[in-house]
Specification:
This is TnsA-like heteromeric transposase endonuclease subunit. InterPro entries: TnsA-like. One of its GO terms (molecular function) is endonuclease activity. This protein is α+β, with helices and mostly antiparallel strands. The chain contains 9 helices and 13 strands. The chain has helices at residues 3-15, 33-36, 77-88, 139-154, 169-177, 187-196, 203-210, 213-225, 248-251, and strands spanning 18-22, 28-32, 61-65, 70-74, 92-97, 101-105, 110-113, 117-121, 126-131, 158-162, 201-202, 229-230, 243-246. The strands form 4 sheets. The chain has a 4-stranded antiparallel sheet. The termini are far apart.
Length: 252
């Protein structure tokens, strides 16, 4: 099947899908997805509440998204980590949780699915995100994810399935996320850090060239979160000897 045929097939998938959502003004809306796909779902309110009750195994809560300065809900630590990773992604400019509910008929019965997140990218692309550890994706879930991916393709969105973040990346992001707020930015210290790390240096050695570590490290971690400075976050946990260097974002 050539590219045009694949696109036509994806549009056909999307044509039979309904979407229900709560818009930025708090108004409940619904209709064919092909009519509503241009809605700013990154501003939508959750279509359902985040249940919390005694004995619940998962932890619910809200994550503050530094990128858009908004709160998004999560129903597990895996979802919280996914929100954190999306917030860390420089291409993501806004994020909403439980943004809409999709409904469709599979020929025998009505089906429904509420994705976990909707992200808006810097280039305007919409991204639908489902979060579930790989070992919990059974046959039914895989079928729903595959259908959702085709529907997204039909309206020009991306689809991402995010599972457990691998250590030490998860550990490093959790640490850096503590310093994501703008209050950690001190312009004079940040300017000196950019100059010091213009060439790679060990994290602590470079920080101590700027000043007292207690004052400098929060700013350094904030610049790592903003990806104006960079380090290998995948192979090992951040430490005093982790090489850090200035990025092209930091040179702007």
């Amino acid at each position: 099947m050539d590219g045009s045929a694949l696109r036509a097939s994806a549009r056909e998938y999307a044509s039979g899908v309904e979407v229900g959502f709560v818009d930025a003004d708090g108004v409940e809306r619904s209709g064919p997805l092909t009519c509503w796909w241009g809605e700013p779902f990154e501003l939508a309110s959750p279509v359902r509440s985040f249940a919390s009750f005694k004995g619940r195994k998962n932890f619910t809560g809200e994550y503050w998204v530094a990128t858009s300065r908004t709160q998004v809900g999560y129903e597990s630590w895996v979802e919280r980590d996914a929100a954190m990773a999306l917030d860390f992604d420089p291409a993501v400019v806004a994020l909403a949780s439980q943004p809409f509910r999709l409904t469709w008929t599979d020929g025998e019965r009505e089906r429904g699915h509420t994705p976990d997140y909707f992200a808006r990218l810097l280039d305007g692309t919409g991204v639908v995100v489902d979060v579930r550890p790989e070992d919990l994706v059974d046959e039914v879930t895989a079928e729903v994810f595959a259908f959702t991916a085709r529907v997204c393709e039909g309206v020009g969105w991306q689809f991402r399935h995010i599972g457990d973040l691998h250590q030490p990346y998860r550990v490093n992001l959790r640490w850096l996320s503590r310093y994501r707020h703008g209050r950690c930015h001190r312009a004079p210290v940040a300017d000196r850090l950019r100059k010091v790390f213009a060439e790679p240096l060990p994290l602590l050695a470079g920080a101590e060239q700027v000043g007292d570590r207690l004052a400098v490290l929060p700013v350094l971690y904030h610049l790592l979160w903003r990806q104006e400075l960079a380090a290998d976050l995948v192979m090992d946990p951040l430490g005093t000897d982790t090489p850090v260097h200035l990025t092209s974002r930091g040179r702007l």
